[in-house]
Write a structure and sequence with these properties.
This protein is mostly beta strands. The protein contains 3 helices and 22 strands. Strand 8 and strand 9 (178-203) form a beta hairpin. The protein starts with a helix and ends in a 7-residue tail after the last strand.
Length: 452
């Protein structure tokens, strides 16, 4: 159990270093990669971006580092340390459990150019998506122990990862006042994995205890090749509990296809509405392996003479995840998390370089839907500079964001963050909140920029 919590804590820290969905750039004037948020958002500027010149990432969680680490004698200790009161830890941990979702995008190449009445875009992007879900009773069992409670329901623990290379080609066209765009995105799968604890319980009534473990794991792509259990002849095994995955290899893991659709319409000269649907599609993974762990462990002090040789529910629960391979699918299709954006922007009659805007975003994950409403204030004070500030309300609370774009002759630099953290570690990891989405990049215009 401690092993699982430690792994998830490491995931919290490491994933928090990264940040994807650059919502603060949706209305940012001069942002040449805005077509990734809405394929209709293009102008007449030909541009190029080189190797790794664009990076963006997103981290969403309902817990922060301050929920995991606590100060003690001029140092930091984990929430499990005896100096940290149990009541303090359990009051801060969400009753519905901890949800963590992170994604990373690394732009390898991007270009945009206009030919006739059509604007074309070409992209190559590396994408990573990861998620972790921890039930309340996980931390309760570790912190309070069997002495305080008799029954712990650990069901619903989940972790997953999805990595792929995205190639895309897009077009933006004008039909009367309506501007619309589409991006076709062939996908090359690198790796997919999902762990789900369907039914995990610890019942400690009396002096002994009973532990039930029913969990599933799916692995596809080039990350792992399963092997045989050394102690069970002819049984193929995936050992996730101690992370002894048999043989690592990188290979071509899957193929997929997705679409981005977008539209923009000026209701009046000052009022513009827009909408987009992103990642409409999925991936067909090759050679997916499905494993399941079904076991019941128990300890009865009246029957078991040596408890040290018996599986302990708190100390060694990770070893209970003994996944035997159930089946191996030749192909398996997985949908991508679909995003939906609906925006409205009003340019001030006294100065069209100043505007207010509203953006609603929904993203569908396997086990929850992310919803966000963001209010913008946008300003282009100079011909070569655009800035915006925004405030948002979403599943994980409130966020303050901002962005700027410097579109000087010869280059275009943009930066933005969807959730500003006032208190961070030296490594720029938020302490009191774990909601952040950051983008940084540079493109190189080849012709004079024309406002979209």
């Amino acid at each position: 159990m401690r092993k699982i919590i430690s792994i998830c804590a490491v995931a919290l820290v490491s994933l928090g270093l990264y940040a994807q969905d650059f919502q603060s750039g949706y209305f940012l004037e001069g942002f040449q990669l805005a077509y990734r948020l809405n394929p209709a958002f293009t102008d007449s500027t030909d541009f190029r971006s080189g190797l790794l010149s664009v990076a963006n990432a997103t981290w969403r969680s309902n817990i922060g580092l301050s929920d995991i680490f606590y100060p003690y004698q001029d140092k930091l200790v984990t929430a499990l340390h005896k100096s940290v009161p149990t009541e303090t830890v359990m009051n801060k941990f969400p009753k519905k459990g901890a949800n963590i979702n992170a994604s990373i995008e690394m732009g390898i190449f991007a270009t945009g150019f206009k030919r006739g009445d059509v604007y074309h875009t070409v992209d190559v992007t590396l994408k990573y998506n990861g998620k972790v879900r921890l039930p309340y009773d996980y931390v309760s069992l570790l912190k309070e122990g069997l002495a305080e409670r008799d029954f712990f329901d650990l069901s619903g623990v989940e972790a997953g990862v999805n990595n792929y290379l995205e190639l895309s080609y897009g077009q933006t066209r004008q039909w009367g006042r309506l501007k619309y765009g589409v991006r076709v995105k062939p996908l090359i799968g690198l790796g997919f994995g999902r762990f789900y604890g369907e039914d995990l319980t610890v019942d400690a009534n009396g002096r002994g205890w009973t532990q039930e473990v029913h969990a599933d794991i799916e692995i596809a792509g080039g990350f792992v090749k399963y092997g045989y259990a050394p102690y069970k002849e002819g049984v193929r095994k995936i050992d996730i509990g101690s992370f002894r995955l048999k043989r690592y290899r990188m290979k071509f893991g899957g193929l997929g296809l997705a679409l981005d659709l977008g539209a923009q319409y000026p209701v009046t000269d000052n009022f513009i509405v827009s909408a987009s649907i992103l990642d409409l599609g999925g991936m067909k993974w090759f050679d997916k392996v499905y494993g399941r762990s079904d076991a019941i462990y128990s300890y009865d002090p009246d029957k078991d003479e040596d408890p040290d040789e018996t599986l302990q529910p708190v100390k060694e629960i990770a070893d209970a995840f003994d996944f035997a391979v159930q089946e191996k699918h030749k192909n398996s299709f997985e949908m991508l998390p679909v995003s939906f954006n609906l925006g409205a922007q009003y340019k001030m009659p006294f100065n069209k370089n100043i505007s207010a805007a509203l953006l609603y975003t929904h993203k569908s994950y396997d086990w929850y839907g992310y919803n966000e409403v963001r209010l913008f204030g946008c300003w282009t004070p100079l011909k070569w500079l655009s800035v915006d500030l925004s405030g948002a309300r979403h599943n994980f609370g409130w966020s303050l964001g901002g962005a700027f774009d410097v579109h000087a002759p010869g280059f275009n630099i943009f930066w933005g963050i969807d959730s500003y953290a006032f208190k961070v570690t030296p490594q720029m990891i938020p302490i009191n909140q774990s909601n952040i989405s950051m983008t940084l990049g540079v493109t190189f215009p080849l012709y004079r920029r024309v406002n979209r």
